[in-house]
Amino acid sequence: MLMKEKIIDMAVITLGAIFVAVGLYYFLAPNEIAAGGISGLAIIINSYFPSIPMGILMIGMEIILFTAGILIIGPIFGGKTIYCSFMLSGIILFFEKVMPIQKPLSDDIFIQLVIGIILTGFGMSLAFNRNASTGGTDIIAKIINKYLKFNIGKSVLMADALITVFAIGTFGIEKGMYALVGLVMNSIIIDRFIEGFNMCKQITIISSEKEAIMEFIMKDLDRSATIYDAKGAFTEDEKTVIMTVVDTKQFIRLREFIKKIDKRAFITVQNVHEVLGEGFIEIA
């Protein structure tokens, strides 16, 4: 299971790097939109020294921050981040050599900004959700997230703000403002995607088939549950209330099971954006 989890981690992180690379190289860089990050700084430097490939610039700037990530966050995070960062730089180098782009894909900068930020934000959230990052200022964002407890999206915003200021000085106020809009969008998108990845369902059930339902939750779903006694306000009948937290797929299975055995059951469902503890995310 441990090896399977590592393989899944690497696959998800690689997919995240691909999304970031596509959004950066084909949508943001051609329009000189430096929406933060080492990639944004690479876009700025590349505008002054176009003979230096962006991929090389990114690799060079990552090395110092790798060390900080390993020392402060830990070797697992550091190792995954090194893999993701070099993968991202390598993919961009591949694009530059095999599928280069000479000019923006269209004259509409804003739509390219939106598409580029969605792609990069989704890719970054995939990496963050697997305890990694795409490197660069994302490492600083992870450190801010760890010690100051800001959401990771807000941490990215804080870490990248200075680069956006440099973008204004380099590319002018108009493209600098595009970069600022992109930075804010990126912060929001990362948080929303991560919330979606980790969303669970808190289920409250009142049913006459409580034993069968609890057995299904524990044996078939491999989850636990909390039970407590309650009294109906209208009937004053004694009831047993079952409360459990499951993911979306498990909720669908649980709902179908209850539907088969007790169509008169009473069920309430709440979306939960973060669950910490045994069986879910480890409490940091």
TrEMBL record:
A GO CC term attached to the entry: plasma membrane
Matching InterPro entries: DUF2179, N-reg_PII/ATP_PRibTrfase_C, UPF0750_membrane, YitT
Keywords on record: Cell membrane, Membrane, Transmembrane, Transmembrane helix
Keyword Transmembrane helix recorded: yes
Start and end residues of each DUF2179 domain: 223-277
Membrane topology: Multi-pass membrane protein
Residue spans crossing the bilayer: 7-27, 63-94, 109-129, 150-171
Main location: membrane
UniProt superkingdom: Bacteria
Location(s) in or outside the cell: Cell membrane
Name this protein carries in UniProt: DUF2179 domain-containing protein
